[in-house]
């Protein structure tokens, strides 16, 4: 069904066509008529399926022409990056209308946002923290809100924003339309649904906690001290276009990025302690291809639209199995293929089993041919599962031959050589130059 048959204004159909949209995705085809009808909605679909347009197009259609009185639509997002991305989507889809969109998030000066609010906007896309600042300062009015959109709700729950969501929701008019969009549907989501929505329609496009079939999964068992050397070996062997390396902590992210740069890799870094300008520059550099590797915490795992990511490498196995689904959702998008790799230690076996239970499949354990493992072979993450040496699952884009010229082994770099110096793991650090004594932290 083309967009024109969904009941959208021609200006919005033109906006969708200008972005290259030809036919609605399943979530768009089902959600747009519900939103246009005025009903509350709970919708879940895998990341990368077009959820933003599924609510942006019908909401823009509902608003009609611009009014300067105050915002009529409020969209809450869990992160600055998502807020900026969704605001850009509203502006792009509504390019042939006179509707105005404003993004409110931290990390930048309040002044320009305050001036834009004063000038009048139809749509506000905000993070909860910055919106609370404006509410507390009585700089924003929510009494004219006609549509409240809670986007990536599962992530907001993970980040502990439920109290802020409740407070903001209570300030909106009770006679409003509320839309709740999420990639997954945790049980806690029902708590938000009870206080925020009225008799909502429910749409679930894909089975809960599934992963896309275009992604090939693999576990690379490794000792903690050899993780970084194995990462270097995988990057050397992989035919990658762009790679996201996920780490568990902000400190670990910085250290991995620093060590990769020492090996002449072009790296962007994304985590919550970076300034907004640094975060925007990191995403821009990675999207443009100036940096081929993005090292990030889970701030990059939800909803951020980055085309052409060929590999996702889980340097740290996520403690929350749902985060694995979101991390690997950055690759294999728009029916392209992708590889999802985990560098897992025996100590992370419990987290690996939880992920396998969630996605409903066993992930093969692979040994990288030519890599000099401590003890001569990789330590199995789960002794009940055999390791598959030099196996190529599906279209795994990793060389399966012998050790290539210059192939890094256990002591690939002097900066990380020797078990006494941490065996190449950036979670060991030194205040001195690379190659100095490394201590565990």
Describe this structure as you would to a colleague.
The protein is elongated. The C terminus is likely disordered. 48% of the residues are buried. Helices cover 33% and strands 17% of the residues. The protein is an alpha/beta fold. The chain is built from 14 helices and 17 strands. Helix 2 packs parallel to helix 3, helix 3 packs across helix 4 and helix 13 packs across helix 14. A 7-stranded parallel β-sheet has the order 3-4-2-5-6-1-7, with helices on both faces. Strands 8-13-12-9-11-10 form a 6-stranded parallel β-sheet, with helices on both faces. It has 2 domains: 202 residues, Rossmann fold (3-Layer(aba) Sandwich); 226 residues, P-loop containing nucleotide triphosphate hydrolases (Rossmann fold, 3-Layer(aba) Sandwich).
What is the CATH third-level topology name of the largest domain?
Answer: Rossmann fold
Proportion of residues in helical segments: 25-40%
Strand line-up across the major sheet: 3-4-2-5-6-1-7
Task: Work out the radius of gyration.
Answer: 23 Å
CATH architecture of the largest domain: 3-Layer(aba) Sandwich
Tell me the name of the CATH homologous superfamily of the largest domain: P-loop containing nucleotide triphosphate hydrolases
Task: Give me the count of strands.
Answer: 17
Mean pLDDT: 81
- Label the overall shape: elongated
CATH class of the largest domain: Alpha Beta
Number of domains: 2
Terminal-residue CA separation: 56 Å
Number of DSSP helical runs: 14
Low-pLDDT sequence parts: 387-424, 427-441
Q: Main beta sheet, described?
A: 7 strands, parallel
Strand content: 15-25%
Alpha-beta content class: alpha/beta
């Amino acid at each position: 069904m083309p967009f024109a048959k969904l009941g959208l204004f021609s200006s919005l159909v033109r906006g969708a066509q200008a972005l290259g949209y030809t036919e609605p995705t399943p979530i768009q085809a089902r959600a747009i008529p519900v939103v246009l009808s005025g009903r509350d909605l709970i919708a879940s679909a895998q990341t990368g399926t077009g959820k933003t347009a599924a609510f942006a197009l019908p909401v823009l259609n509902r608003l009609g022409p611009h009014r300067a009185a105050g915002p009529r639509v409020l969209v809450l997002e869990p992160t600055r990056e998502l807020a900026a991305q969704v605001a850009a989507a509203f502006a792009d889809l509504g390019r042939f209308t006179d509707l105005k969109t404003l993004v409110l998030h931290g990390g930048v000066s309040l002044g320009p946002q305050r001036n834009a609010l004063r000038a009048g906007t139809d749509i506000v896309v905000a993070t909860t923290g910055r919106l609370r600042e404006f509410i507390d300062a009585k700089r924003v009015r929510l009494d004219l809100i006609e549509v409240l959109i809670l986007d990536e709700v599962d992530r907001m729950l993970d980040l502990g924003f439920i109290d802020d969501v409740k407070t903001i929701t209570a300030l909106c008019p009770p006679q409003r339309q509320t839309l709740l969009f999420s990639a997954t549907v945790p049980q806690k989501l029902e708590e938000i649904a009870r206080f925020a929505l009225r008799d909502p329609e429910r749409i679930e496009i894909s089975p809960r906690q599934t992963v896309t079939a275009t992604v090939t999964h693999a576990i690379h068992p490794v000792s903690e001290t050899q993780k970084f050397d194995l990462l270097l070996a995988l990057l050397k062997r992989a035919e990658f276009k762009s790679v996201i390396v996920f780490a568990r902590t902000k400190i670990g992210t910085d250290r991995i990025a620093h060590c990769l740069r020492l090996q002449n890799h072009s790296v962007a870094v994304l985590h919550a302690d970076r300034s907004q300008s640094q975060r925007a520059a990191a995403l821009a550099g990675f999207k443009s291809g100036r940096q081929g590797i993005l090292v990030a915490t889970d701030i990059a795992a939800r909803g951020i639209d980055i085309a052409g990511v060929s590999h996702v490498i889980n340097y740290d196995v996520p403690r929350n199995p749902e985060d694995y689904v979101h991390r690997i959702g950055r690759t294999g998008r728009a029916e392209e293929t992708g590889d999802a790799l985990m560098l897992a230690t025996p100590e992370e076996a419990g987290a690996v089993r939880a992920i396998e239970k969630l996605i409903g499949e066993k992930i093969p354990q692979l040994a990288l041919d030519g890599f000099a493992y401590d003890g001569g072979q990789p330590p199995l993450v789960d002794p009940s599962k055999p390791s598959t040496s030099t196996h190529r699952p599906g279209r795994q884009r990793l060389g399966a031959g012998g050790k290539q010229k210059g192939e890094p082994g256990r002591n690939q770099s002097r900066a990380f050589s020797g078990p006494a110096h941490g065996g190449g793991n950036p979670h060991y650090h030194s205040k001195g130059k690379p190659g100095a004594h490394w201590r565990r932290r």
